[in-house]
Specification:
Layout lengths: L4 E8 L4 E2 L4 E2 L6 H13 L9 E7 L9 H11 L3 E6 L2 H4 L3 H15 L2 E4 L4 E2 L10 H30 L11 E3 L7 E3 L1 H15 L4 H10 L5 H4 L14 H8 L8 E3 L2 E2 L9 E2 L6 E3 L9 H14 L14 E3 L7 E3 L3 E3 L15 E3 H64 L4 H37 L2 H10 L3 H6 L5 E6 L4 E6 L9 E3 L1
Parallel strand pairs: 1-4, 1-5, 5-6, 14-18
Antiparallel strand pairs: 2-3, 6-7, 8-9, 10-13, 11-12, 15-16, 16-17, 18-19, 19-20
Helix pairs in contact: 4-5, 6-10, 7-9, 11-12, 11-13
Length: 518
């Protein structure tokens, strides 16, 4: 039987770091100290010290939810049966949502057969096998959760007070930087401010936002994200666009006016902020040094509005899956019939110029590819079902055989004791023979446990295959129905030129031949 590993889970949230000094507020919560504490405890535990350890770290992720890359990877390995124990410094490092933490401790980990250890809390699930977690652990989870919510309310209240006073509380706009003397005041960042003034002059002088963006790209002037060296994960290369230029022209902060509370979270842990009504905004003129005058701001805004034309807006968002394979930008739809990459406007001799395809043509290619994928899935699904059924039958048969072997050894032990009682063997002979049978039975029981785990895993995979059900739905559709649900199967379409596209399907089963070329 394959030996399972110990998962050492470490987490440090942004709230644990002092932003002014870029150091950990509490040294005991640092990743290094968590690692040392857990490894020291494991080294002193004779049962766990020799097992292989895998480390999973989420540095800079909140504990109020479980959407963390390290945790997700650990859970995947746990579900595949590679992890037998999870060790953390304390329950707050594992998570601060007491309902979800309790669900993992009382349901998910016991179901997966995983031992859970929280060193500082003195909790070891091995000591609570067959019982619910203690009241002290439940209270700790509740306190960690309450602490997180209370801290969020206090931070929100403090931020709202600073917003009302029209102090800087978020990321400074391009052209400004934080004052060294007062972190809630903005000062002009002259190199970037020169670019802002140039943009306003060009717009007032009669250039369009697209022409301005193209000129900035040709001169290789860094975009705001490049200038600030922001480590933003994106699928497309940074470039100046008309949208970026329009956003800067409409930003009244360049006139020295501070505007706060334009968006707000509706509740704690809200991932999507809502726009607030203009009457709720906090506005203060002359809050910081202006880069452009109020007259220049009005003139540029007026020039942009005069040149804005009505554009065709499609309310059908189901086909918004087309992207440029060169720059990663989402393709624009013109008149509802043609998709094209907008980036060619901002560069000369760009491969994006060739990314232009008719919607009907693209849908026909995707439809033909989907039909082939469905056929392949049907064949693969049949083979897979036969293989799984065969494996299930073998596992059930093996389970039955092992149980019978255990019963036989129990019977042999009973007969052995009878012979000893009748005097046909000495005590030494009886004990030696009994020990041999006991070791043999222990090996069989170990195989039995592993066999039961495999059987349970097969049942779980069968019961939770939601995506497989989705694929099955496509397999049962006619050609006409398949056309109606075409975009339900497509995650993304990368358009290279007038001849080549690549289709990325939503479902894992649809992976064979995922690129279509015409």
């Amino acid at each position: 039987m394959k030996e399972k590993c110990i998962a050492v889970y470490l987490r440090l949230s942004l709230e644990d770091v002092d932003k002014r000094t870029d150091s950990v507020k509490d040294d005991s919560n640092s990743i290094v100290s968590q690692r040392l504490l857990i490894n020291r405890w494991l080294d002193l535990n004779p049962e766990l010290s020799k097992l292989k350890r895998l480390e999973f770290c989420d540095d800079g992720f909140t504990g109020t939810n479980f959407s963390r890359p390290g945790f997700t990877k650990m859970l995947e390995l746990a579900k595949s049966g590679e992890i037998g124990c999870v060790a953390v410094k304390d329950l707050s490092r594992f998570g601060r949502d007491y309902l979800e933490v309790g669900d993992y401790l009382e349901h998910i980990f016991p179901f997966l057969g995983i031992r859970f250890v929280s060193v500082n809390d003195g909790y070891d699930s091995e000591k609570h096998r067959g019982r619910t977690v203690g009241m002290d652990v439940a209270f700790r989870n509740l306190i960690y959760d309450y602490y997180s919510k209370d801290l969020s309310k206090k931070v929100t209240s403090a931020m709202r007070m600073k917003q009302k006073e029209c102090e800087y509380v978020s990321c400074p706009p391009y052209g400004y930087k934080v004052s060294p003397e007062n972190k809630h005041r903005l000062v002009i960042d002259e190199p970037a401010a020169m670019v802002v003034r140039r943009i306003y002059r060009d717009i007032i002088g009669g250039k369009s936002s697209t022409e301005v963006a193209k000129a900035l790209n040709e001169e290789h002037i860094p975009t705001p994200s490049e200038y600030k060296k922001l480590a933003v994960q994106r699928n497309k290369a940074p470039q100046w666009t008309h949208t970026l230029i329009l956003g800067m022209i409409e930003n009244i902060k360049y006139t020295g006016t501070m505007v706060n509370h334009t968006r707000e979270s509706r509740h704690i842990r809200d991932k999507c902020q809502r726009k607030t009504d203009r009457s709720e905004w906090y506005i203060k003129e002359n809050a910081h040094p202006p880069i452009i005058s109020k007259e220049e701001y009005d003139a540029a805004l007026g020039a942009i509005r005069r040149r804005q034309k009505s554009t065709y807006n499609s309310h059908d968002l189901t086909d918004r899956v087309y992207f440029c394979a060169h720059c990663g930008a989402k393709l624009e739809k013109a008149n509802g019939t043609v998709f094209a990459c907008p980036s060619h406007r901002y560069h000369d001799s760009s491969p994006c110029e060739n990314v232009r395809r008719r919607k009907t043509e693209l849908e026909e290619i995707i439809f033909e590819a989907l039909k082939k994928q469905v056929q392949l899935v049907r064949i693969e699904r049949t083979k897979k079902a036969q293989k799984e059924q065969s494996k299930l039958g073998e596992t059930v048969a093996k389970l039955s055989t092992l149980k019978k072997q255990i019963e036989v050894i129990d019977s042999e032990k009973f007969n052995l004791y009878g012979q000893y009682r009748e005097g046909s063997m000495t005590a030494e002979e009886y004990l030696a023979a009994k020990e041999t049978l006991t070791k043999k039975q222990a090996d069989i029981k170990e195989q039995l446990v592993e066999c039961e785990r495999q059987l349970e895993q097969m049942n779980v995979q069968s019961a939770t295959a939601e995506r497989q059900e989705e694929v099955n739905r496509f397999c049962g559709l006619s050609d006409e129905q398949l056309k109606e649900h075409l975009y339900d199967a497509v995650e993304k379409v990368l358009v290279y030129d007038a001849k080549s596209i690549e289709i990325i399907w939503k479902f894992h089963d649809m992976t064979v031949g995922s690129a279509a070329t015409v």
